[in-house]
Design goal:
The structure is a single chain. The chain is an alpha+beta fold. The chain has one domain. Helix content is about 55%, strand content about 10%. Helix 3 packs across helix 5.
């Protein structure tokens, strides 16, 4: 040993070396090991969130359509009383433009829902009529009773 120094080599066990990995390395390994489960969980969360949002949107649309339907009935009932000498019928498209907000006019499903509610109501007649030379669908109140009997608020 006179001429040089011999260094002693130490061997590190693999288990001990693995335990000294950085946090970032451990996170990457954990993600790689559980990638399928993570992707499946993300997919399920996105689908459930989309279904919930769609359901809330549909419920909001139906509630607004019911409000518009009651407004339509009120207008038609007022016209049927005929106190001011107006016609008893109303052009449906004109009533739509009068009742819907400008932002709501783009939502075609909303007025389709209102039309469906009107078609189901036996108190309202719906028929084509020539108005100013153009054919329009008109609605006319035929009901004997008043809208004031059980209102929507008392049903809830």
């Amino acid at each position: 040993m006179a001429g040089g120094f011999r260094l002693r080599e130490f061997e590190c066990p693999m288990g001990l070396a693995a335990s000294y990995q950085s946090i970032g390395c451990r996170i990457r390994k954990g993600i790689k090991a559980n990638l399928n489960g993570i992707l499946l969980t993300i997919f399920i969360v996105v689908v459930v969130a989309a279904c919930i949002l769609r359901n809330l949107e549909d419920r909001k649309l139906v509630n607004r359509a019911e409000d518009l339907y009651f407004q339509v009935c009120e207008v038609l009932e007022e016209r049927a009383d005929g106190a001011s000498g107006e016609t008893k019928w109303v052009v449906a498209s004109g009533l739509r433009d009068h009742l819907l907000l400008p932002s709501e006019r783009k939502i075609t499903r909303l007025w389709k829902e209102v039309e469906g509610l009107v078609q189901e109501d036996s108190r309202i007649d719906q028929y084509p009529k020539l108005v100013n030379g153009n054919s329009h669908v008109v609605w006319e109140w035929q009901g004997e009773g008043s809208l004031q009997t059980p209102t929507r608020d008392t049903e809830r």
